[in-house]
Amino acid sequence: MKLLAFGILGLAVAACDVMPSQTPSVGDVEVASTEFPKAARPVAPIVSSRWSTEEARDRVEEADTVMDLAGITPGMTVADIGAGEGYYTIRLSQRVGEAGRVLAQDVVPAVRDKLAERATRENLDNVSVKLGGPADPKLPANSFDRIFMVRMYHEIEAPFEFLWRLRPALRVGGRVIIVDAKRKTHEHGTPPALLKCELAEVGYKQIEFHDMPQIGGYLAVFEASGKRPGPRQIKTCQQD
User: Fold this and answer.
1) Is 139 in contact with 169 (CB distance < 8 Å)?
2) What CATH number should be reported for the domain whose range is 36-233?
3) Which residue has the higher pLDDT, 40 or 27?
């Protein structure tokens, strides 16, 4: 299946071409954003779509190590949230192969467009690119084996709402993969205890944690656990 070019930009930016569900969003539209608590800690601003050069990241085998720990195999359907310039998108595309699918999402339209151009230029037939929202990733329900959030969790404006609306997108046995630094959120990182607490409040259980000093951070793996709580049941977590 080839990426389709459409719209005045001629970009392949719709997710429905590669997703198993045609549902445009799993966000429960009748639940207002005001129902969710705000994070009791700073939210880091988005300052760049690039964390480091791809060559430098490949020299320490960042993507290969993370994908191995995440259990990425051919045929999987994976979302890359906050994909930026596409470092993981490209490598996930290669790892899942022709039978797999990758949905790359970003909240900055210009970044999304640039990544869509790259996907088309590099003939990534199993990649689709989509614009997400600050409080809603707008993912189709029951669609993903893995959802990646690499060095961007601390930039999510409304983490509890975002995680709540994200959860139904996981397939049974699906996992959320978060890579971040052991720094306070205003320093562009997320303390591991804070991360674990915030995800637990929305009904995710941490099942793995890996220190990754070679990339200056860590990898945490979560699964949906129990019933998704109501927005008013969610409590804020304090950053130490």
Assistant:
1) yes
2) 3.40.50.150
3) 40
